[in-house]
UniProtKB/TrEMBL annotation:
NCBIfam families: PRK10445.1
Domain Formamidopyrimidine-DNA glycosylase catalytic, residue spans: 2-90
Domain of life: Bacteria
InterPro entries documented for this protein: EcNei-like_N (IPR044091), FPG_cat (IPR012319), FPG_N (IPR035937), H2TH_FPG (IPR015886), Ribosomal_uS13-like_H2TH (IPR010979), Znf_DNA_glyclase/AP_lyase (IPR000214)
UniProt name for this protein: DNA-(apurinic or apyrimidinic site) lyase
Source species of the chain: Shouchella hunanensis
Pfam families: Fapy_DNA_glyco, H2TH
Length: 271
C-alpha cells in the first residue's frame, strides 16, 4: 500500500499536470459518479492536497474529489488521451489539452463539496499529516503522552491513522528502528530520549522518503552503500524487508515478525 510520502508525491505530480488548466474531459468509471463529470469539467483545479493516504483535488466551483488508493491504487501522468500498458482498471481521469492524470485500481473515490470534507469519516478521524499540516515535535510528544495513545503498543499505534496520518508498514519498522524502540513497547514505557527520538523521526523520515522517492536511510549511508555498488533495495531501508541481513549500525541480524497482522522488521540489539 502506498504510504503518506508516496501519496504526497503523487499529489504534487497531479497538481503539476492539471492545476489551473482547463479540463477538456473528466471521466469516472463508477456509475454513481458519472453525474459529476460535466460540472467538474467546467471548473478548474485550484489545488491538490493530501491527508495521510487520501488525496483531495479541489475545484474552483466549490467541489472536491476525495480518493484513497487503498492497497492497489496508482496515479499515472501521461500525455492527454494516451494510456499505459497495464492490466489495471482506469477509475478516474482528468484531461487537459496536453496532460492526463489517471487513477487506476482504486475504488474509494467520492465527490463532495469542499466545505464538507471535514465531515468525511476518514478526514474527521485522521491525525496530523507531517507532510501537509503544520506539525511540530512538541505536538507529536503531546499526542504520544496523551491518555488516548500512551498505553497502546507502538506497533499498533504507528498504523493508526488517527495518531499520525500517512504512516504505513514500511514507515512503522523504520520509525521504531531510528527511535531505538522495541516493537512491543508502549509510549508510556519509553524514556524521554526515546519519545523525543520518535517525535523527530516521525517528521524527518516522512520528509526524507518524500524527497527521495521512498528511501528512509540517511543520505550519507545511502551514498556510501550506493558507491559500494549496492542496489536500491539494499540501501533503501534500515530494517524493512531486510530479514536475515545485517544491521548497518551493530551488525546484528535483522528479524522479521508479524504484528497487528502485518510484517514488521527490527534489530534485536539496537531496539
Amino acid at each position: 500500500m502506498p504510504e503518506g510520502p508516496e501519496i504526497r508525491r503523487a499529489a504534487f505530480e497531479v497538481e503539476q499536470a492539471v492545476k489551473g488548466q482547463t479540463l477538456v474531459e473528466v471521466y469516472f468509471a463508477f456509475p454513481h459518479l458519472k453525474e459529476h463529470e460535466d460540472h467538474l469539467v467546467a471548473a478548474k483545479v485550484e489545488a491538490v492536497r493530501t491527508k495521510g493516504k487520501a488525496m483531495l483535488i479541489h475545484f474552483s466551483n466549490g467541489y472536491s474529489i476525495y480518493s484513497h488508493n487503498q492497497l492497489y491504487g496508482k496515479w499515472m501522468i501521461r500525455k492527454a488521451f494516451t494510456y499505459p500498458t497495464t492490466k489495471r482498471q482506469l477509475r478516474l481521469a482528468l484531461y487537459t489539452e496536453k496532460k492526463a492524470a489517471l487513477l487506476y485500481s482504486a475504488s474509494d473515490i467520492e465527490v463532495l463539496k469542499t466545505d464538507e470534507l471535514v465531515n468525511h469519516p476518514f478526514i474527521a478521524k485522521a491525525g496530523p499529516d507531517v507532510l501537509s499540516d503544520d506539525v511540530t515535535e512538541s505536538l507529536l510528544l503531546e499526542r504520544m503522552q496523551s491518555s488516548t495513545f500512551k498505553n497502546r503498543s507502538w506497533s499498533a499505534l504507528l498504523l493508526d491513522q488517527g495518531f499520525v496520518a500517512g504512516n504505513g508498514n514500511y514507515l512503522r519498522s523504520e520509525l521504531l528502528y531510528v527511535a531505538g524502540i522495541s516493537p512491543d513497547a508502549k509510549p508510556s514505557e519509553c524514556s524521554d530520549e526515546q519519545q523525543h527520538a520518535m517525535a523527530e523521526a516521525l517528521i524527518t523520515l516522512s520528509e526524507r522518503s518524500y524527497e527521495t522517492e521512498g528511501i528512509t536511510v540517511s543520505h550519507p549511508l545511502a551514498n556510501e552503500l550506493r558507491n559500494a555498488g549496492k542496489k536500491r533495495r539494499d540501501y533503501r531501508h534500515y530494517v524493512f524487508n531486510r530479514e536475515g541481513k545485517l544491521c548497518y549500525a551493530c551488525r546484528e541480524t535483522i528479524v522479521k515478525v508479524t504484528k497487528n497482522g502485518r510484517r514488521l522488521y527490527y534489530c534485536p540489539y539496537c531496539q
